[in-house]
Amino acid sequence: MKVVITAATDKETAQIKDTINPIYTGGNNQRKVSFHESGVGLLASCFSISRLIFEQKPDLIIQAGIAGTFDSKQLLSKVVIIKEEQLADTGVEENGRFKDLFDLNLNEPDNYPFKNRKLVNTYLQRLNFLKLEEVTGITINEITTRPERIELLKAKYNAQIESMEGAALHYCCLQTATPFIQIRAISNYIGERDKSKWKFKDSFDNLSSIVLRYVDHLYNSK
Fold it and tell me: How far is CA 46 from CA 6, 94, 103, 208, in A?
């Protein structure tokens, strides 16, 4: 099985690279794990992940990263899996409302790979074998900081997680029938700009631990 662990930046996978069992990254094609840096944001990640799929033809793509949460009840540094993504800044904001592609009738809600406006990971039933909490995500190109914008997004999408690359993974993999899973550690509450309150270290530690457990289970489960 050929597995690729992708992240927007090397920083998000550095700890995984340093501690992964070399049996998974060596020359044995039956246990081949490689790493991929997609770049930050929808454009870079969509192109990079598409190229990865067509050139390497992986059996599974694991997107690993950190993310902010809209849900104040979520514990910082907790690791979750994203079950579905929505595009949350492709459209127009007017009169205090945000209209996306579907509101503007520029795309049909069930036009593949969308399902009721969402990019749903249809592989989770067999791939979430660690039984991590499955949450909803939105993808944006501009990190949300304004209180008004935060409330607008919460009301419209009812999402728990915000990232800058998640929808690119879902879109590219669904379009090419490539199994995938998005694993993220919650580093901060959205709108909190005091980074001393963000849980970077704990998030990277927990993310690394979960991804390593995931790979072990993937190759060693009976």
Answer: 12, 28, 23, 24
Q: Which two tokens mark 78?
A: 């907790």
User: Which whole-number Å values give the CA distances from 55 to 61, 66, 195, in the listed order?
Assistant: 13, 26, 38
pLDDT digit string (tens) for 75-132? 999 999 999 999 999 988 888 788 999 999 999 999 999 999 999 999 999 999 999 9
Q: Which two tokens stand for residue 33?
A: 């794990």
Secondary structure class of 123 (helix, strand, coil)? coil
Domain boundaries, given as residue ranges, for the chain: 2-220
Amino acid occupying residue 22:
P
The CATH superfamily assigned to 2-220 is Nucleoside phosphorylase domain (3.40.50.1580)
User: Which pTM was predicted?
Assistant: 0.94
Other CB atoms within a 10 A radius of the CB of residue 52 amount to 19
CA dihedral of 98, 102, 106, 108, whole degrees rounded to 10: 180
For the packed helices 166-176 and 42-56, what is the interaxial angle rounded to 10 degrees? 30
CB atoms within 10 A of CB 155: 10
Q: Which residue has the tokens 């915000």?
A: 162
